[in-house]
Specification:
The complex is a heterodimer of chains A (292) and B (349).
Chain A (H helix, E strand, L loop, with lengths): L1 H24 L1 H18 L1 H4 L31 H37 L1 H16 L2 H12 L3 H28 L2 H8 L4 H12 L1 H24 L11 H9 L7 H28 L7
Helix pairs in contact in A: 2-4, 2-12, 4-5, 4-7, 4-9, 4-10, 4-12, 5-7, 6-7, 7-9, 7-10, 10-11, 10-12, 11-12
Chain B lengths: L3 E14 L3 H5 L4 E14 L3 E5 L6 H8 L7 E6 L2 E2 L5 H10 E4 L13 H12 L4 H14 L16 H13 L5 E5 L7 H18 L2 E6 L2 H7 L2 E6 L2 E7 H6 L4 H8 L40 H5 L5 E4 L2 E3 L14 H10 L6
Parallel strand pairs in B: 3-8, 3-9, 6-7, 7-8
Antiparallel strand pairs in B: 1-2, 1-4, 4-5, 9-10, 10-12, 11-12
Helix pairs in contact in B: 4-5, 4-6, 5-6, 6-7
Classes of the chains: A mainly alpha (292), B alpha/beta (349).
Chain lengths: 292, 349
């Protein structure tokens, strides 16, 4: 019995290892993973790494170029841009993570219900999702923020609502195809309840495409958060925000390029990272490529 | 026969095709009759086989009995209670008492669940056993179907088709059902494995006094396992009777044709009767009169006009054919043929 259990554990591990091996073959995705790990570390340890407080102003060092003391230079109030970028990551990551989690929960529940129940419920839920989807997510976000008022958690909620349709569609398409599987029908015949079937059987089998969607939506989430801040309706000062730094820096672009270039690069890194990871995961989850 | 466990009476099922909005607006919908006026009974410890080509409506009958579909008319009674009036707790009892084994073993188990969890799932739904008790029960069940209890920790993709089908059977048995619907349980398996599964099913039936509704298109399998056979064609039962007698002397031309098309081990052993020719007609536009007449060698003018009812043609045999007396060539030999069949049921194969 124990040897059997060990064997099975080994087999599970080897499956995981196979998955990892397939993923690692995609060099671009590995670069993306590396970028994301760096960003994650920097975000978590921002207060340890940052040499200055992100809000500390120093009028003796206004708009100074990159140097040993200020690696990314200083802004128009003499604040260290490197420290502000690190804390900006904290803000943007908190917002994006909360937003994607909200969208995942709302979208998956909606999509699974619509796809599994079918019929009128499907029509009702998915047509509402279509209405949401009809608005470009940025316009929708702007409209919602105009209603809610700009704040950190407002942006997170707005992201959650704006990205719900994408998760709903992915979850629905998986549920629709899984619903026809014999093991789902046999569960129905055996008297399994609908929540049991939806969340214990359909959801685990749909997790691959959903994970891909999560990573891709992270990339979009960071961009949207930065855009909203750039437009001045996102995170409000004094919270450091990468998008806001871009706006502030654009007036000094000819005299102090570092003011907006470094925050811009900082936005780009996680976006590229999540995109390449998403693509890599999608290729790895694709069953047609299992036997590459 | 003992008192029937399952009684199906006058069951019909129509499906609507072209049910989209545009078609509905223009009244452009069509009805397909998948099952028409089907009646049968299954007694305790008995096996009834539903036989027919693809599209004959066998699986639709199974789906109605498991309440996947609602019948358009007719009733299904289980232990005397109308199935489609069951709700709440009574329905859950029914779901426990009637289990199903599906055709494709590879897709009838959740690929992300270990075998043990799959077998234990009905116990979770219908009983309040603790986790340890469930594990114990799973081990017993796996032994019952001749599998090593260690298989409980395997995933479905690690098992062969025959092993998976044993797991499906163990899952069905987990909540001590009285009635099992077997929807082509062996047609996806190799012949050698088929025999093992059939013997397992027969042993379980003896040990547990189970009733089976055996849905199949494979006549040699049906002959091996079932007590009685109902032959379906285009949604209707065309012949019904004891297995041995029906195989020996079919009285419906369709049954005769089906039997003639079973491959024989001995090439000299020619069956009498014509093999089936032609195609199954579209159920959207069924032929007039007897649905089988376009493919029937015995068809007369009467057959093109009037659909024969399923009638008692002689003791223990019902058939829906105007010319049943002609079927089988040597006319008038009917009652003898039945006796012969009873004496030497193993003369074929």
């Amino acid at each position: 019995m124990t040897t059997q259990t060990q064997k099975t554990t080994e087999r599970n591990e080897s499956q995981l290892r196979q998955f990892a091996a397939n993923f690692i073959e995609n060099k671009l995705a590995v670069v993306g993973l590396f970028l994301i790990v760096c960003v994650a570390l920097v975000t978590v340890f921002a207060s340890q790494i940052a040499p200055y407080s992100p809000t500390a102003q120093n009028y003796n060092a206004v708009l100074e170029g990159p140097s040993m003391a200020h690696p990314f230079g200083t802004d128009d109030l003499g604040r260290d841009i490197f420290s502000r970028v690190l804390f900006g990551y904290q803000t943007v990551m908190t917002i994006t993570t909360s937003g994607v989690v909200v969208a995942f929960i709302l979208g998956t529940v909606t999509g699974l219900t619509a796809g599994y129940r079918g019929g009128r419920i499907d029509q009702l839920l998915m047509r509402s999702v279509d209405v949401l989807m009809a608005f470009p997510s940025l316009i929708l976000a702007l409209a919602l923020i105009a209603a809610l008022g700009p704040s950190k958690w407002g942006v997170a909620l707005v992201l959650g609502i704006a990205y719900t349709p994408i998760f709903a569609r992915v979850a629905r398409s998986e549920a629709v195809s899984l619903r026809e599987e014999q093991f789902i029908k046999s569960l129905e015949v055996r008297g399994a309840s609908q929540p049991r079937i939806m969340f214990r059987h359909i959801l685990p089998n749909a997790v691959g495409p959903l994970i891909v969607t999560v990573t891709l939506q992270f990339a979009f989430g960071i961009l949207t958060t930065a855009t909203l801040s750039f437009l001045g309706v996102g995170v409000q000062p004094p919270d450091p925000s990468l998008g806001r730094m871009l706006t502030d820096g654009k007036d000094y672009l000819d005299t102090a390029w570092w003011f907006s270039v470094f925050p811009g690069i900082a936005i780009m890194i996680p976006v590229i990272g999540f995109n390449t990871i998403g693509d890599g995961l999608r290729d790895t989850f694709d069953p047609k490529q299992v036997n590459r | 026969m003992t008192a029937p466990v399952l009684e199906v009476d006058g069951l019909s099922k129509q499906f609507t095709v072209n049910s989209g909005l545009v078609s509905r607006l223009f009244g452009n919908t069509q009805e397909v009759t998948a099952v028409r006026d089907v009646s049968f009974e299954v007694g305790r410890g008995e096996t009834l086989a539903l036989v027919g080509e693809s599209g004959a409506g066998k699986s639709t009958v199974g789906n109605i009995i498991t309440r996947v579909h609602e019948p358009s008319s007719g009733t299904v009674r289980y232990r005397g209670e109308d199935l489609h009036s069951l709700t709440g707790e009574e329905l859950m009892e029914y779901r426990q008492s009637v289990q199903m084994v599906f055709q494709d073993p590879y897709s009838s188990l959740d690929p992300r669940y270990k075998v043990g969890s799959t077998v234990a799932e009905p116990l979770k739904i219908h009983t309040e056993l603790s986790k340890d008790e469930r594990q114990e029960r799973v081990a017993e069940l796996l032994e019952t179907v001749n599998l090593d209890p260690a298989f409980a920790n395997r995933f479905p993709h690690e098992l062969s088709g025959g092993q998976l089908q044993r797991v499906s059977i163990a899952t069905a048995l987990s909540v001590d059902p009285d009635f099992i619907i077997l929807d082509e349980p062996v047609s996806a398996l190799d012949v050698s494995v088929q025999a093992q599964i059939l013997n397992l099913l027969m042993r379980l039936q003896r040990e547990r006094d189970l009733s089976y509704l055996f849905i199949s298109h494979d006549l040699s399998v049906v002959k091996h396992l079932s007590d009685r056979v109902a032959v379906m064609y285009l949604g209707e039962i065309v012949e019904r009777g004891e297995t041995a007698g029906l195989f020996e002397a079919p009285v419906h031309p369709y049954t005769e044709g089906l039997l003639a098309s079973v491959p024989q081990a001995n090439p000299d052993d020619h069956r009498r009767g014509q093999r089936l020719t032609g195609e199954v007609p579209s159920p959207i536009d069924p032929p007039s009169g007897c649905p089988f007449h376009p493919r029937c060698d015995y068809a007369t003018d009467e057959c093109t006009e009037m659909n024969p009812a399923l009638e008692d043609v002689f003791a223990g045999r019902d058939a829906a054919c105007h010319n049943w007396e002609e079927v089988g060539g040597e006319a008038g030999a009917r009652p003898d043929a039945v006796t012969v069949a009873e004496e030497s049921p193993e003369s074929e194969d």
